[in-house]
Amino acid sequence: MTGPALPQLPFALRAHGPDGDWSYADGVLTGRAGARTDRFVPPTGEDLEPASDAPRLLGAPEGDFRLAARVTVGFRAPFDAGALYVHAGDRAWAKLCLEYSPHVPTVCTVVTRGHSDDANSFTVRGDSVWLRVSRTGRAFAFHASPDGEHWTFVRLFTLGGDTAPALVGFLAQSPVGEGCAVRYDRIAFTPGPPDDLRDGS
Q1: Which domain does 33 fall in, by range?
Q2: CA 190, CA 181: separation in Å to the nearest integer?
Q3: What is the pLDDT of residues 180-190, one digit of tens each?
Q4: d(CA 131, CA 29)
Q5: Of 83, 123, 170, 185, which residue is the least packed, with the fewest Cβ within 10 Å?
Q6: If DSSP codes are grouped into helix, strand and coil, which group holds residue 95?
């Protein structure tokens, strides 16, 4: 299903997974995770349940880039989250989340290569934070920021193989709750990777 057009992005978006009720107006993208929606393959050996999915709004940028947005989550239950998401295959994807993890807003990352890992980065005051995903060659980088100016390096990784066809965009989740609303504003897309992944730029 075709998603809303975002003038900040030089590529079209398409909705994936359950209905996210995605809409865009006045510079703000909004979406909603339904009850018990998630995107996670447990590393403990359990398999991904067929219903284990979450609303995603994704497109295919070309070349190296930076995609950033301020993410605000209407937290209602543990692990409710809004995320930037990278998808390279059914079992090759990653998400950078602002997540209620489980009782404090936290910047979290998940990288899935067959099974998912799960790592908390740092806690956040309030219900908003800036998130950024960058592509640099074969690799992707995750950064987060309290103000959209100084960026904290969170993670550098690959998803295996050629990352050029990867889809990138937005995700909402509510793994154990009854759903939550997610808002993305200050959305910005810039060609090229950061000059330095670790100097705050």
Answers
A1: 14-191
A2: 26
A3: 999 999 999 99
A4: 14
A5: 123
A6: strand
